[in-house]
Design goal:
Blueprint lengths: L1 H9 L6 E7 L2 E9 L17 E2 L5 E3 L3 E5 L1 E4 L3 E2 L3 E2 L8 E4 L3 E6 L8 E6 L3 E8 L5 E3 L3 E2 L4 E5 L6 E6 L2 E4 L16 E11 L4 E7 L2 E2 L3
Antiparallel strand pairs: 1-2, 2-3, 2-4, 4-20, 5-19, 6-9, 7-8, 10-18, 11-15, 11-19, 12-13, 12-14, 12-18, 15-16, 16-17
């Protein structure tokens, strides 16, 4: 009876769960909701059926892939013997990576993504564009030093949030009217990180998890 009560508690129809499939090195998961609590048969060894409803028909890979665009790399070095040495040509940091990156989706279908934009100085109207289709996500605002923007384009999870001084603010209304919630097509995808002003102060990350038709 105690085990039945624990199972009933875990399979509440009001709670969202994750169904994990493991077969050797293959691990995939899918979001699910129990339809009803289990209906047990009488007897010392009751049997039962668990019905799970999955709003999305696609399985996801276990890991989230991340691709960074136009990062900054620290260049300051400290000599352990004589302390900090500053020459005439010393650099605090340098720009690494490319403004255009190729992101490969190895899933079975196109998928949404989370776009993270970070400012290291003032940035006007930041944007991420698909170079081939010219579709883009753009925000009409001025980012300040230290600002972070997170945009999610996945089906049923579309959000746009500004994080400034640790405070989160919804900025859905600041999306440009021509914005398209970019999707990651199967295969290669070329994305450009840009802004109307001070694009050099902007770095971006693209996070996504491939979606699969089955296991």
């Amino acid at each position: 009876m105690q085990l039945r009560q624990r199972l009933n508690h875990a399979l509440s129809p009001k709670q969202r769960g994750e169904l994990l499939y493991v077969c050797g090195d293959l691990r995939r998961h899918i979001a699910c909701y129990p339809e009803t609590a289990p209906n047990y048969t009488p007897g010392k060894l009751p049997t039962f059926t668990i019905l799970l409803r999955c709003p999305s028909p696609f399985w996801q890979g276990e890991t989230t892939e991340e691709v960074k665009i136009a990062e900054w790399e620290g260049m300051m070095e400290f000599d352990e013997t004589d302390g900090l040495q500053l020459g005439d040509d010393w650099e605090i940091g340098s720009r690494t990576g490319e403004l255009i990156v190729n992101v490969e989706n190895n899933g079975d279908v196109e998928c949404g993504m989370t776009i993270v934009l970070e400012a290291q100085g003032s940035v006007t109207n930041p944007m991420l564009m698909n170079v081939e289709t010219l579709d883009f996500v753009k925000l009409n605002l001025v980012m300040l030093d230290g600002d972070r923007i997170e945009i999610t384009t996945a089906y049923g999870q579309k959000t746009a949030v500004l994080i400034r001084s640790g405070v989160k603010t919804g900025i859905f209304r600041l999306l440009d009217q021509d914005t398209t919630f970019l999707q990651m097509r199967v295969g290669e995808n070329l994305f450009l990180c840009d802004a109307d002003e001070n694009a050099g102060n902007l770095t971006a990350s693209i996070l996504f998890s491939g979606q699969y038709l089955g296991v």
